[in-house]
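Quarterly update from the structural biology core.
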Amino acid sequence: MARYQTILETIGRTPVVRINKLGPAGVNLWVKVEAFNPLGSVKDRLALGVIEAAEKSGALKPGQTVIEATSGNTGIGLAMVCAQKGYPLVVTMAESFSVERRKLMRFLGAKVITTPAALRGTGMVAKAVELAQKHGWFLTRQFENEANPDMHSATTAQEILADFAGETLDYWVTGYGTGGTLKGVSRVLKDKSPKTKIIVCEPEDAQLLGSGAEQARNPDGSAAAGHPAWKPHPMQGWTPDFIPKLTGDAVAMELIDQILPIAGPESLTMSKRLADQEGIFVGITSGATFAGALRIAATAPKGANILCMLPDTGERYLSTPLFADVPVEMTPDEQVIFDSTPLGKAD
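Predicted structure, tokenized:
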């Protein structure tokens, strides 16, 4: 046990946990559970990284308002960091994302500006840019900001190397949202663990990388328009309607060994199976990444070590299809248990 001066010191050092029931025999399947971060997702790392880098460079002034476009987890992480450090925070967020995320950010003191669902991810980004320019706010630019992958190179990647010191990590499986985790970790693994194959998952209905189609960009690397291969999908936080610059960097640097398309229903099923068979409570994107890891495990050589990133907690998804079949009232089976003893039974 340790004592910490602020909540921010607890970010990172998340556990790697063995999968005991869902993986095939003879293969070592592991998951890195980012829900152990204080606000429940891998984006806590990004949030701290971009704010501290901006403080160090002088780009963020004391008391200045911070603004970012987010599907939720980055905004929640930023709300924690800004609350602790004393910065006002405004986030823009497409109204299609889960209401839990809005409430969490507001509870942490942030202001949440929702943009029409029809404008997609590019719309919420454009609104954040407008507001930053209008009011002189600091825009964190999570999709292009090098402090994002730098934080993962300095923390996430080092934790993975330490956890597999003395043995080979054969596969590292991840999705991508901003591309910060992907770029930051994979470049370190390619250097320090060159036998590790980098496997990237993306939605079957939005195969932006798999399509091979180029992303139109502005001179600063930001997306100039939505990507032609994008379609709506249930993996909130994964694959916005454009290829972020940081993800594009990982492609250009040839860091990716394989891209796997994951179906939406499969991601929901795997999230539920992780919960009810392994006791690991995670969200839809985690289920999707785990589905990809299982696909790799099915053909991996005996004794292979596979590490799958699980980016966030399942509590971000209570109002989504992930919980659609979970009843609020007692089920018939539960009623039978209740009725098996006298207390509370109707005469």
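The chain has a mean pLDDT of 95.
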